[in-house]
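Q: How do we represent a protein-ligand complex in a form that can be generated cell by cell?
A: Start from the inputs.
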Amino acid sequence: MILKSTFFVVLNFVAVVLLAQTTPWEVPADRSAKLSTAAFTDQNRNTGKDLYQTNCKSCHGDPGKNNVIKLVPPPPDPATTQLQQNSDGSLHYKISEGRGAMPAFKNIMSSADIWNVISYLRSYNKDYRQLLAVKPAYGGEVFDKVDLKLTADPTHNAIVAQLTGLKGSLVKPIAGLEVKLFAKRYFGNLMVDKPMDTDTEGKALFSYPKNLPGDASGKVSLIAQLSNEELFGLVRTESTMAIGLPTDRPPLNEPRALWNVVQKTPIWLLVTYLASVLIVWGFIVLALLKLRAIFKLGE
Ligand code: HEC
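Then emit the C-alpha cells for the protein with heme C bound:
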C-alpha cells in the first residue's frame, strides 16, 4: 500500500517536471508574424548587448557558454536552437509577456529596445537573415521628419494636434495615426481625453474639461505624443497654453530656502532667526568672559 502510493507520488512528480519542460509556449499568430520595421545594425546590436547584460544575463548567462541559472524550466542559452528557432515576432512576444520565472519586459523596456535585444540575440545565429516589416505606407511616402504641432481652440474647449510629414520642401498631413495628449504634472502626467486618431488633414481633436487646473495665470503645459514609436521613433511636442483655471497654489517644488531667495522669507522669520543667533553667541561670549574672570581670580 505504502509502496503503491509512493510510486504514484513519484510518477506525479515526474509528470509535473516533464509537463513544465514540454508545455509549448503558445504565441498568437499575429504576434509571431510580427517583424521589426528597423534593420538590425551594429548600433542596435551594441545597445541590445548592454540591455542583455543588465536585464537577461543573470538568468540566461553568456550566450554560447551555457552558464544559465538553474530553474525549471531552464532559461535557454541564446545561442541554442531552442531559442533561435523562434521567429522574430515570437521572441518579441515572449520577452514582452514573460512566463513563469521569465519576467515580462513590456513595461520595463520600450518595444524598440526589445528589438535591439533581439538583434543582439540573433548575432549568435549565423544562419539568420533578417526579414524587414514593410513600413505602413502613408501614400507610399517615407518622410525625412515627422512633426506634431499643438493649437488651442478655447471657445470649443478643444486642442488640435496636427501631424505632418516633411520630405524636402514638401509638407504632407499624415492620417490614421493615434495621438495621446497629456497635461504635465509634477508627479507623472495627466492624460487629457482619450487617444485620438488623426483625420485626413492629419488633425487629432481633443476636448479638455473647463475646470482643468492651470498655474497662477491659468497656463497648462501640454504634451502630445504619437502612440506608435516603431514607425517614426518618438514623435512628441510640448506647448504651454493659457487654457486652464488659474490656480494659486504654490507648487511643491518651489524653492523655499532661507537665504537664496530672500523675498520668499517672511520678515518675522529673519528677525527671529537673527535674534536667536545673537542671543546664543551673546551667551557664549559671556561664558568666556566669566571663565577669564575665574582665571584672573586664581592668579
Ligand atoms: C529571472 C530569470 C530570467 C531573466 C532575468 C530573463 N529570463 Fe528569459 N527565461 C527565463 C526562464 C525561466 C525561461 C523559460 C520560461 C518557460 O519556458 O516557461 C525564459 C525564457 C525565455 C525565452 C523563450 C525561450 C524559448 O524557449 O522559446 C526568451 C526568448 C527569453 N527568455 C529571453 C530573455 C531576454 C531577452 C531577457 C532579458 C531582456 C530575459 N529572457 C530575462 C528566465 C529569465
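The pocket of heme C is lined by residues 25, 55-56, 58-60, 71, 73, 75-76, 82-83, 86, 91, 94-95, 99-103, 105, 117 (CB under 6 Å). The radius of gyration is 32 Å.
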